[in-house]
Amino acid sequence: RSSETIAATQQLASFCDAIKKGETMFNTRDKSSGNDADRILSHNVHPSGWTNPEPADRYNLVVIGAGSAGLVAAAGAAGLGARVALVERLNMGGDCLNFGCVPSKGLIRCGRAAFDARHAYRFGVTGTEKIRTDFKSAMEHMRKVRATISHHDSARRFQQDLGVDVFFGEGSFSSPDTLTVNDKQLRFRKAAICTGARATALPIPGLEETGYLTNETVFGLDTLPPRLAVIGAGPIGCELAQAFARFGSQVTILEYGSGVLPREDREAAAIVERALLDEGITIHFDCRTRQINRHGHEKNIRIDTPEGPRTIVVDEILVAVGRAPNILGLGLEKAGVEFDPKAGVRVDPRLRTSNRRIFAAGDVCSPYKFTHTADAMARMLLTNALFHGRQSTESMVIPWVTYTSPEVAHVGLYEHEATRQGHAVTTLTVPLTETDRGIIDGEANGFARVHLKKGSGKILGATIVAEHAGEMIGEMSLAISAKLKLSAIGKTIHPYPTQAEMMRKLADTYQRSRVTPMLEKVFKTWFRWQRH
After folding, report:
1. CA–CA separation, 474 vs 44, rounded Å?
2. b/e map 283-299, b = 16+ CB within 10 Å
3. pLDDT under 70 in the chain at which residues?
């Protein structure tokens, strides 16, 4: 995508003059800054004055939702020569581009830069005590990055370059083979529901009246909240809590459970928890939020904790728990598509709904709500919907990453899951400090862990904790997907010095574990005989 990124950067510059002259009108949910980047984003993802095309007599594929799954499905089908319609209610790019992966990782990167600058004294850099952060500038940087990337997801690119009929409006099924958009009928042979999911509200008294942020609104801020409460210590809560703390917010996390990142390996989660605490974040575990009230500009949160009730005073509240599938208004009943209000559209392992003409992919039907999962499901959907393929989600190997510092990356089964499935498990762990690069980088808090089927070397799952764990988990994902044993990683030459040497060291550890006392005795006898 390098050429596209260059083109988008040039587009960003050329649009600015036209925008400043008032030559373009825009439509976007993020209106807080009014800067050029936001306008260019809107120009790409929902151009003002867009005229929907006249529908074809019948489409090979109608895609509802232009998020990660929908864009991949539409582009892939059109690239194969199919007649495709893409229907989007709001903005091209979906959550990932507008409110999710791209802006959150952009802000996290800015926060990491600030943190690294403050701690650069460890490497002989002086003057770090004078480091200051500018939250507004960081948000503007994030928006410029988002605007640049948005070219790839733009409505004009999909319609003019890829040949997809792009429709903006509320899409609703009017029959088992017809979707209605702004009174226009789109008849199809196959359809793909890719409408994603949204942040859900919590039934906390006073929350709605007091006001709160979600991932859909937090990136509209231009002013750093002096005091921020984050409800939820899952991946989103931990990532954004750390990012805001690094800009200077006094952050308090309120967690219903007993630890951060409840789905993750407990030792990995403990490392993240310690990092958050060390950076001055307050965490209340096993707490219940009873009432929220506003007093002037302040928001008072009454919670019950194991130590008793208390009141927390903040300036903003970020709700970082719960996602609900976007199924309202789709007319699924008219299409004969079964669904669950919480789980979303019901699909079989081939992504087929109860209407065999209609498939679904992404957050609207998957418990794994990740952009890369939506992408992979969309590719599977194309094969199964257009070519009667038999690809199954049961074969998917899905890695994921929590982008805190350090990052936590995982793929496959956790030890307790493997045991529950009846596997006898061997678990091996290599600390990051056993790599020279980990010592050079001054990163002591991390490890690589692998779960093996006992006695076979078959990889069942793996967890990595490191600053760039997400860049390393792919090796384990490939090994599981290709059914390679850990010995294959041991035979792979890794560059020195790198933190990824942890993967090879895991294999070395396993090989050493296979040397039984009897085998060791045989080896000693053999070498003693060779000396004569």
Report:
1. 32
2. bbbebebeebeeeeeeb
3. 1-34, 515-516, 519-520
Which alpha helices (DSSP H) does 251-290 contain, by range? 266-278
* Residue 435, SS3 per DSSP: coil
Other CB atoms closer than 10 Å to residue 506's CB: what's the count? 24
* Sequential DSSP letters for 130-199: G----HHHHHHHHHHHHHHHHGGG-HHIIIIIS--EEEES-EEEEETTEEEETTEEEEEEEEEE---EEE
| Rg of the chain in Å (alpha carbons) | 26
Instruction: Determine the pLDDT at residue 426.
Output: 96
Rounded to whole angstroms, how far apart are CA atoms 351 and 353? 7
Q: Rounded to whole angstroms, how far apart are CA atoms 367 and 380? A: 16
- How far is Cα 244 from Cα 316, in angstroms, rounded to an integer? 12
CA of 48: how far to CAs of 37, 53, 470, in Å?
A: 16, 15, 38
Instruction: Give tens-digit pLDDT for 48-61.
Output: 999 999 999 999 99
Q: Sign of torsion, CA 512 517 521 526?
A: negative
Q: Are the CB atoms for 338 and 346 separated by under 8 Å?
A: yes
SS3 category, 423 = coil
Residue with tokens 């590719």: 379
Instruction: Write the single-letter amino acid at 265.
Output: D
Backbone angles phi, psi at 73, to 5 degrees: -65, -45
**Which stretches of 388-472 are assigned E, i.e. beta strand?**
400-402, 407-412, 425-431, 447-453, 459-466
Distances (CA, A) of 158 to 3, 72, 155, 162: 17, 11, 5, 5
